Amino acid sequence: MFRALTRFALALAVLAAPVAVQAATIPPIEYRERVLDNGLRVLSGVDATTPNVTVQVWYGVGSKDDPQGRSGFAHLFEHMMFKTTRNMPSETLDRMTEDVGGFNNASTWDDFTNYYEVIPADHLERLLWAEAERMGSLVVDAEIFDSERDVVKEELRQRILAAPYGRLFGLMIPQASYQEHPYKRPGIGSIAELDAATIDDVRAFHRDYYRPDNAVLIVIGNFEPAELDAWVDRYFAPLKTPAAPLKRVDAVEPARAGPGVFEGYGPNVPLPAVVVTWLGAQASSSDAPALKVLDAILSGGKSSRLYNALVYEQQIAVEAFSQADLPQQPGLFAVGAILASGETVEAGEAALLAEVARLRATPPTEAELEEARNELIAGALRERETVDGRAFALGYAWATQGDPAKANSELADLAAVTAADVQAVAQKYLAEDRRMTIRYRPESARPAGTAAAESAPPVAQAVVFDGEIVILAPEDERQAPPPVGAPVDPVLPTPSESVLDNGLRVIVARSSDLPLVSAALIVRAGAWADPKGEAGAMSMTAAMLTEGTTSRTAPQIAQEIEALGASLSSSAGLESTSVSLTVMSDKAAPAFAILADVVRNPAFAAEELARQTAQALDGMAVAYEDPGQLSSMAAGPIVFAGTPFGHPADGTPASLPRLTPAGLKALHERHFRPDNAILVLSGDVSPEEGLALARQAFGDWGRPAQALPAQPRVSPAADRQVVVIDLPGAGQASVRLAKPAIARKDPAYYPGIVANSVLGGGYSARLNQEIRIKRGLSYGAGSGLSARRTTGAFQAQAQTKNESAPEVMDLIATEMARLAAEPVSQDELDARKSVLIGAFGRALGTAGGLGGVLGELALQEVPLGEIKTYTAKVEAVTPDEVRAFAAERLSPADAAVIIAGDAALFLEPLEEKAPDLRRIPAKDLDLEAPGLTAPEA
User: Fold this and answer.
1) Do residues 104 and 210 both lie within one domain?
2) Is residue 850 part of a domain?
3) What is the mean pLDDT of the chain?
4) Which of 934, 895, 923 lies closest to 735 in space, CA to CA?
5) Residues 511 and 553 in one domain
6) I need a surface site. Which of 282, 424, 561, 912 has the fewest CB within 10 A?
């Protein structure tokens, strides 16, 4: 799958006077390497500062290795690897990871498939045993095969068919860009080819590629090296390497003879899009660093060339992007844009090509070059905050370049790129006569008589598997997992807090020696403060903060921040507005000066508001075509109707044009004041350094004389109703049950979060077990409990094929009711508590995560010492408390049901279950209006 071009969200930020980030200041990833006799490569690195460890196994097989006529096969197989082995019944891996406070996941790329876990360090030996089990004795039977194939189909519907641009990025770009190389096949596959796969195909695939000499084992975290070596020798060394040589793709993509055009159409395309691709380099090419820098210059943030030209100045695009896709074999370089309303793909293509031509003709400036290198190096630094991030860097370098050491040398390579290098690769790869243009428009724009015919899957070579067929051993014959080791206690940070003379609360917590600082200025006002009829006013106020101050223009803010290698963003929710900054610690002072400026002195220029409004409206047009986003946006107005939370925090297509600079300025003056704000700093910063930064940036921020506006209490009544938002042609239906919940300071908070963890708080929770694992009806089902200052919300949701929406609605309601009717077993309760405790501990392990936890505690007026008592409070929750909370707060009887999808495919059976349902055509939806539809004129 062409992964990279899904990167729509552009980082905010950059600098006028560039400050070079030296690669030498970034600590290298320390690791050692050994190779077993069977060819397995083992990389390991000790980090004694964490109580956790990551175990990752990377296999040199990806979607390019899919058999002919079996696209999506490597991805399907990734799912199979989580099921049964000779000694592990299905879902055992989840019991050994999620249920002890860790997590597991995997991903399939063009060239590799990687499996990764983060678990408490005392579980390391057990996970090594489990990974060796998966490598050497996977069970493939009909039941597992059919179930996981159904799940992959739902993933395809969700990612490709339901997402407005899923077809473009997941299917059309690779198919149009390659002629011969298997990179052209979609990594997620097709339903027809998935249906054509056989069990023999799967068994042969495992034998051919899942072998020690095609894998690397990576372990980073808190462990003893000698113990690790012994365990690796015990569990992995006995695995045999097949005698047959590894199959390798040797296809060579031919050079393009000239430019080409691919015309694509989709049923849910609110805005046209255009992407231009060229054949590019491979990851190991000496041109790769310069291509990465070229990519950053074109689209790395709001000071980049494509953003400035297409989004900011010409305003012909709502998003503009580029990507250097540099896989193991030669890949692509691409530029693209989602066009603004009323703009054409031809205009977008011309503007994109003009920026590419400018780089071919003239090298970038030294300021642009420094900014791009700083962004890339700072991004590498952020990746290295976590043990799994460091392991990923090593694994990716191995999988794409054949050498994990490239993860460290890459930084020096990026720092050495010159302006001439960037121009040279632009000239070498991005020639005018070797481009492929992919145009993507709504189905309604397709010329008559040109509808694409459904093609049959390519003929696949019949596979007859003649090897050993592994089955689950009888229970009394299974090898037991190794025992759990001695626990490693976490070292929890101790936050320091002060209040400046002007009332600003300052919280500082040192969490790392990695040279990175995270900061957030939180204002205690959110969408509840939106004036009547101006839904989205506070959200737009937040967006406007970085779009110009009284002394800096929007481009200057972006340039100055991004040249520091920093990121700056702002957003508003229901209860608060925040401005967040991440910066390398030695650049904190200049970055804080910009943070203070955007918080205190926004200009609210009319022309900038017009730009932001147009972009927001275009973004809504996209969201209104996505069933998941649509049901989510509707939940608040339905559950909190008639209260200050009863409108979308981001506004509506009708409300945003009503906003004015004067109104936003008044809203800012009313709520942005030091005695209504919290500043949280975390990372590589001492309490003394943090307080000094706060005083320098905000110490002279004046406190107004007038009283602070108080947040109103929100007390909605739960109301049973079923609302269908009809989105004809939607690739899936989103099913959501929602109702009011509790305040954060409610005594039932801890029973509430444990109850939610049991119900839908993870892969192993009940909703996902029933909907995905047992029935294959969804790619994922879950629930969330958000507790706020006054009242929170509960939501449970899943996306499924349209025809299954009524069944999924019933399954969610049944599990909500069961939680109240039956006590939770102690084993299940312990497992779900571990999920909460593990996730909380991992959040405290990064600068941004720690800052987020402290900021939420401060906003909700909870003592900061809660970070040290959280575990004990979760552990103290009893089965009776969970059942009581579910009975009182999670009954489905008074929950609102919101289903967004193609109603023609599920309305009739749904009406039998809910005869009083309301059907609202998506085109008539008005999230501000009573009843969600505007009154007829």
Assistant:
1) yes
2) no
3) 93
4) 895
5) yes
6) 912
